[in-house]
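Private note to self, pasted from the team thread so I don't lose it. Backbone tokens:
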């Protein structure tokens, strides 16, 4: 599960259906939910689209490599999941 996250002010610029305070509340709730998921990943969306896509791609490829290694009874390499 990916959450494309950005500061409330940026989100508010993109979607103005609710107040800034409500945007901040919703953002915090989503971050808390996704961060608590075993398969959840919060991606910084306040960067160029190609960097966002690269962060997602890296996360997916690291997940697939780890899953494959577990299935083959191999030790997964250090994936360095810092995005």
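Design output:
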């Amino acid at each position: 599960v990916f959450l494309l996250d950005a500061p409330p002010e940026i989100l508010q610029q993109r979607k103005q259906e609710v107040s800034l305070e409500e945007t901040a509340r919703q953002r915090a709730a989503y971050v808390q939910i996704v961060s608590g998921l075993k398969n959840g990943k919060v991606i910084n969306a306040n960067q160029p689209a190609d960097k966002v896509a690269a962060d997602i791609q890296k996360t997916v490829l690291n997940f697939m490599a780890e899953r494959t290694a577990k299935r083959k009874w191999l030790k997964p390499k250090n994936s360095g999941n810092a995005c």
